[in-house]
Amino acid sequence: MLFDTHTHLDAIQFDEDREETITRALEQGVTRMINIGFNRETIPTTMKLAEAHDFIYAAVGWHPQDAITMQEGDLDWIAELCAHEKVVAIGEIGLDYYWDTSPKDVQHTVLRNQIGLARSLGMPICIHNRDAHEDVVRILREEKASEVGGVMHSFSGSWEIAKMCLDMGFHLSFGGPITFKNAKQPKEVLAQTPMDRLLIETDSPYLTPHPYRGKRNESAHVRLVAEAAAEIKGMSFEEIAEITTQNALGLFGIR
User: Fold this and answer.
1) Which residues belong to the annotated binding site?
2) Residues that bind a divalent metal cation 2, according to the entry (predicted)?
3) How many domains, the chain?
4) What is the CATH number of the domain that holds 94?
5) What is the model's pLDDT at position 86?
6) Which of 104, 154, 167, 234 is the most exposed place for a label (fewest CB within 10 A)?
7) Which residue range(s) make up the domain with 128?
């Protein structure tokens, strides 16, 4: 029983074999997935996927790379969608200082507004953080994100940053990079992450785990992430699969 807590099955990379990809995930024991709608184009396609499959849930929000495109009314749109029974989180939201697509001040405003919405609705949030660790932690603190918690998606920070996120009640999610031989820091952080705060994901079609690195990722590969996590934690695959699934069900309020 595996739970891929972050995937993009509506991406164009799956246009030729989307249903086959979903079937392969089920065959590998993936019983639930959360698809991420992160801008004006992907939110509708995410909702369509979630409505078409009982085991696919949705997170909706505005990605920091697309922050500059957010218009008046979009926050209300997200709020309306959060009333849908298949929407379980607001995300992915956050900061991205790697890609120069949206000014930092715009990213900050969009992030703060969405945290405020999450607090008003009592929804967990899914945080995207690329090269912006200190600002992400600061804004989460200032906006009292600890009131709703959520997940630090594809966590890539140090243990010091991880502790700050854990102290605010967040879960840490790990994906393909923990299978890379040279990925020392993610493995060290995962090793120290409390078992009740650990999640796994693929971020497919991106961040493909070894031995498929360089090829398109897909939700079936979350099994490889679970196997790597089990090795790092010194546990069985079955234990990791069960614990991370139960953690996700609890965080996202899925029965």
Assistant:
1) 6, 8, 92, 128, 153, 203
2) 128, 153
3) 1
4) 3.20.20.140
5) 98
6) 234
7) 2-252
Cis check for the bond before 44: say yes or no (omega within 30 of 0): no
Residue 106, pLDDT above cutoff 90: yes
Peptide bond just before 64 cis, omega within 30 deg: no
Task: Write the burial class of residue 214 (CB in 10 Å: 0-12 exposed, 13-18 middle, 19+ buried).
Answer: exposed
The b/e string for 118-153 (b: 16+ C-beta within 10 A; e otherwise) is bbeeebbbbbbbbebbebbbebbeebebeebbbbbb
197 vs 249: CA distance, rounded Å: 12
Give the C-alpha separation, 137 to 146, whole Å. 11
Cα separation, 201 vs 248, in Å, equals 11
Of 197, 192, 204, nearest in space to 234 by CA: 192
Q: Are 126 and 36 in contact, with CB atoms under 8 Å apart?
A: yes
118-159 pLDDT, tens digit each: 999 999 999 999 999 999 999 999 999 999 999 999 999 999
User: Which residue matches tokens 């996120």?
Assistant: 165
Measured CA to CA, the distance from residue 51 to residue 56 in angstroms comes to 8
Rounded Cα–Cα distance for residues 153 and 130 (Å): 10
Contacts of 225 (CB under 8 A, 6+ apart): 174, 175, 176, 178, 179, 200, 201, 202, 209
